[in-house]
Every structure is written in C-alpha cells, then in structure tokens.
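Per your request, structure below.
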C-alpha cells in the first residue's frame, strides 16, 4: 500500500526530469548565437514574454545583439533583429525553414482543424485568386451594401442626422467591421433584421473568444476559462455549419473553399471547423485596425482634413438622400493615396505579428554583416518586425509618431524607398508577414478597412467625447498576435451629416 502511494510522486519526478533535463543540459555550441535559458527550468523566459513581449525583446536585443536564442516553454527560439538579414530567412531557397508545420500546430490547437500539405497549398491559391482583381471588386460591392445595411439600418437612413450617438470607438469599429465582413463572406437571408441580430450574437461570442485567445495560446487559462473556450470552440463550427445555415449570397471565395474541401473528402465536422478558422482569419484584425486609423485621424486634424478632401474627390460632394445607400464604387479605392498612406502608417504603428519558422535541418544563418551562426535542427527561427523594423528610427524617423504622409512622396505617389545604414531596405513595413507566410487575404482586408474609413469620414460627423484624451496605450498581453488592442476604451460621438 505504501509502495503504491509512492508511484504518483515517482511519475511526477520522471515527467519533470523529462521536460527539464534537455534545457538544463543545453549549452551554447561553437558558432551558435548567444543562448539565454532564463532562470526557470523548462519555462525559461515564457512568463516575461507573456507579460510584455515588446519590453522583453528590447531587453534581449540590448543584452545579446542582433541574434540570440531564448528558451520559451521548453522550446528554443532564435530571434533575428537585423532587417537587412531577413531576406534569406523569408526566401529560404535551401528549404530548411518550415512555416507550415508551426502553423499546422497552431490551427489544430485553436480551431481543431487539420489539413494535409497539398490541401493547404490549394486553399492558399484559392484565397489568392478570389481576394484579388475582379473577384475582389465584386466582393467590395457586396461589402459596400452590407456596410450600408449596418451603418444606416435595414430601411436605410434610419439614423437621425439631428442627433448625436455615443459609443466606444473600439467596440463600434470592431462590431461594424465584423458584422459587415461576416455577412459579406458567409451570406445572408431576405430577413435583414434577423441577419443583423444573428451577426450581433456571433460577434458577442467572438469578442469573448478574442479576449481568451492570448491566454489560450500560452496555456494560461483558468479552469472556468478552459470550459468557456471549449464551449466557444464548439459554438462557432455549429453556427457556421452548412447543415444549419442555408443562406444566399455566399461569397465566391467561401463557396470555392467549401467545394474544394468536399471534393477532397474532408469530413463535414472538419469543414465546420475550417469555417471557424476562416472567420477568425478574416475578421480578427480589421476591426481593431480601423479603430486605430480613426483614432489617429481624430487626434490629428490635419490628417483628418486631408483624408476628408480625398474622400470628397472620390465620392462626390452630395449628401445622402433619405433611403439611399452609400454611393461608393469599389474602383474609387484605386484613387486614395492619402488614405493608403494613413492605413500603412496605422499598420506600422499597431500591427505586431511574430513570424516563426521551424528549423528542419541544421541551418547556417548568414547575416548582412558577414557573420554566420549555426541554428540547431528542431529550434524555431523568429522575427519580430514591429521592434526591429517598424520602430527603427533609422528606417522610420520619429518611429512612435503618427505621420499620415510618411508613405507619400512629395508628388503624392506612394513612397517605397526606405533606408537603413545607407542601404535601401526591402522589408520596411511587415504588417502582413512576408515570404511564404504573407497573408493571402491582405488585399481584401485593406479594402474593407479603407471602405469603412472613407464612409465614416465622408458621411459622418465624428468627435471624441474628450478631445484632450491621449492616444490609448496598447494592451501588452497582445504583442505578437497581429493588430494590437487598446488598453482601454475611447468614447466618441457620431452622427450622419445632415442633408443640405
């Protein structure tokens, strides 16, 4: 009896030794980058990274230089901080760095979805096809109609132009963009009011999922939060299931993806999980990004004026008539260099993804300085371009300042020439990732955001409830996950501009 009581303790010791021993024994080898394992076995620096990745990365960069390896939860990540050395990593002609393996593990953990290699390639190519060119223009037309439905009401012009409405700017932008994107992509019914109610319900659950998302990835959820996350992981596939949702106007992109999965014999329950993944990928960042764009415009009157003048040029000067939808032609998005610069600057300041690759074979990292480092097989190669590129004062002078014309040349054309250490740099802004991991839906996402901002500044009067309130700080728990969220809500007022 006493012997059996010792078994659980012995098993625990074996597990701890199994997890921690490789980390305890690992030492920096010849030609390898500086190694920093932290003080906690196995965990290493995971808690410090989770607390504030930006401050942690600044500290490691100052301490170790442009290349360093850190232990994070039993895994070793080599971060490269010199953007002039990104090229070989992102191109990877040796095929020793694998993005798909890392992405597969994340998608399986978050959405429960798994696809074989050939499926992923076809999904990527299908997405690229339908989210560019003429297909994108068709989708933009639907998006304009859907934004009209949400922003003006089912009967159009239901907003009273004589009354101001007050809301949280983050909630307003996220709510509007999510519902517009959801209905434009996944279809609607003839009952528009019911569609809006269903979209609102899904958005409410999506916000909860989004709140738990960072802690879930770090495996830091409490018992009740784990139960809540499990419920949400079941809720979304059910709500997006073709079995329960026979709608009209499903976008060509979603229809093509679903057809491909059926032809490949993917199980129906896995197709539902795929829908959940697509919903997250398409709607998780656009709302937060438009929040920052409008907030920066509201805090910088000269930028707001420049965008409004451009919006008037492409949309015309007439006010909306009663019962009229927004009269915006998607081709107008080709003629907005000022707004393009505003969005690029917004993404530079608030998009903070981490780009990761699995090292499949021992890899020789060749730096622009001429130095070479050996990266071990099984480790992770990682880039954090927000710190190493977006906040580099050599590339972007006054990097923390919002400059709406930063990406404009004096003649009004797009500026693409940026330099570091006197050398022209290709990767001067990386909000969408780069290389094989670049977001295939970036053109659609950017179109969505531009449409919304154009309509807001052209047809609505906007003002902050407190004009003197500073720009909201970011939530440090969300570094590395895409568009940052504000640490607190910002109240604003809006009204439809009165008809003349």
């Amino acid at each position: 009896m006493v012997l059996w009581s010792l078994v659980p303790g012995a098993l625990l010791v074996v597990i701890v030794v199994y997890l921690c021993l490789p980390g305890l024994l690992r030492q920096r080898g010849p030609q390898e980058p500086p190694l920093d394992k932290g003080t906690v076995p196995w965990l290493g620096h995971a808690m410090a990274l989770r607390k504030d990745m930006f401050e942690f990365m600044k500290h490691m960069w100052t301490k170790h230089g442009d290349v360093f390896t850190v232990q994070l939860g039993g895994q070793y990540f080599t971060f490269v901080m010199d953007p002039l050395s990104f090229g070989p990593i992102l191109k990877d002609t040796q095929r020793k760095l694998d993005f798909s393996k890392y992405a597969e593990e994340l998608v399986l953990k978050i959405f429960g979805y798994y696809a074989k290699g050939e499926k992923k390639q076809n999904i990527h190519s299908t997405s690229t096809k339908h989210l560019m060119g003429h297909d994108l223009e068709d989708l933009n037309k639907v998006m304009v109609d859907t934004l009209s439905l949400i922003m003006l009401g089912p009967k159009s012009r239901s907003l009273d132009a004589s009354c101001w409405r007050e809301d949280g700017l983050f909630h307003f932008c996220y709510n509007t963009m999510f519902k517009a994107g959801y209905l434009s992509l996944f279809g609607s019914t003839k009952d528009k009011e019911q569609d809006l109610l269903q979209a609102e319900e899904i958005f409410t659950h999506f916000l909860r999922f989004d709140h738990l998302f960072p802690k879930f990835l770090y495996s830091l959820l409490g018992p009740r939060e784990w139960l809540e996350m499990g419920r949400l992981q079941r809720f979304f596939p059910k709500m997006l299931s073709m079995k329960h949702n026979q709608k009209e106007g499903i976008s060509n992109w979603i229809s093509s993806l679903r057809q491909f999965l059926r032809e490949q014999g993917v199980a129906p329950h896995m197709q539902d999980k795929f829908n959940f993944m697509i919903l997250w990928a398409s709607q998780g960042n656009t709302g937060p990004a438009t929040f920052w764009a409008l907030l920066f415009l509201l805090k910088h009157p000269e930028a707001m004026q420049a965008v409004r003048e451009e919006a008037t040029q492409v949309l015309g000067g007439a006010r909306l008539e009663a019962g009229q939808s927004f009269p915006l032609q998607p081709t107008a998005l080709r003629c907005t260099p000022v707004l393009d610069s505003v969005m690029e600057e917004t993404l530079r300041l608030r998009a903070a993804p981490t780009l990761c690759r699995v090292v499949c074979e021992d890899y020789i990292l060749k730096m622009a300085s001429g130095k070479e480092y050996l990266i071990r097989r099984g480790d992770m190669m990682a880039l954090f371009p927000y710190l190493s590129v977006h906040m580099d004062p050599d590339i972007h002078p006054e990097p923390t300042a919002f400059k709406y014309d930063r990406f404009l040349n004096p003649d009004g054309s797009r500026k693409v020439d940026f330099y570091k250490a006197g050398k022209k740099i290709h990767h001067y802004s990386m909000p969408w990732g780069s290389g094989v991991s670049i977001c295939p839906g970036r053109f659609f996402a950017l179109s969505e955001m531009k449409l919304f901002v154009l309509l807001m500044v052209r047809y609505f009067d906007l003002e902050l409830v407190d004009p003197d309130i500073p720009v909201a700080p970011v939530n440090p728990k969300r570094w590395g996950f895409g568009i940052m969220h504000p640490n607190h809500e910002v109240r604003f007022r809006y009204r439809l501009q009165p008809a003349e």
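The chain is about 50% helix and 10% strand.

Regards,
D.
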